[in-house]
Amino acid sequence: MSTIARKGQILPAVFCLALRQTEGLIRSILDLLGLDLAVPDHSTMSRRAGTLGLPPPRGGREPVHLLVDSTGLKLCGPGEWLMEKHGTRRRRSWRKLHLATDADAGRIVASVLTGHDADDGGQVGPRLERVDGPVASFTADGAYDRDDVHAGIMACHLEAEIIVPASSSWRHAGSPERLTPG
């Protein structure tokens, strides 16, 4: 339970939620995962906030190892459940949340919320601008395997190691360093 309570103290800071909203979010996440775990109520989280030993925020001195990715978010209005219940078809509104996470501390160090049509690689610059301190490594998936992404990383953090697997649609063309479309 203390792990859930600990996350219950981090979630309000990340998503700007009240403790009642955090309780509902944790309950929804556990339901989606199919886990039958007890969720602390908002008053318990409030009482335990002072007793939990949360790690202090990182200073900007040590280089961070960034894990970078994005996810889609469906926006629901107040009448969304009525539309789903009665079968009304309507275009849903989507946004994309681009995150940069500190691999060692497990903290989100930068985020950008965009429209659904923004590409992942195009949001590397705005995320890197929000990272305080040096970056030791940049790890991402194949969507970031582009020359402009590599150039953007090197412009901000020259010493950063870039760890991006080659896209599955690319094949080697003689040289192992350079990939060309297949």
Summarize the main sheet: 5 strands, mixed
Tell me what portion of residues adopts beta-strand conformation. 25-35%
Strand numbers in spatial order across the main sheet? 3-2-1-4-5
Sequence stretches where pLDDT stays below 50 over 5 or more residues = 171-176, 178-182
Based on CA atoms alone, the radius of gyration comes out at 20 Å
End-to-end distance, in Å? 50 Å
Question: Describe it for me?
Answer:
- The chain folds into two domains: 2-48, no CATH class; 64-181, Nucleotidyltransferase, domain 5, CATH 3.30.420.
- It has 182 residues and is α/β, with parallel strands linked by helices.
- 32% of the residues lie in helices and 27% in strands.
- The longest helix has 15 residues, at 19-33.
- The chain contains six helices and seven strands.
How are the SSEs placed, and which strands pair?
Layout (H helix, E strand, L loop, with lengths): L1 H14 L3 H15 L8 H7 L15 E12 L4 H7 L6 E10 L4 E9 L8 H6 L5 E5 L7 H10 L4 E3 L6 E4 L1 E7 L1
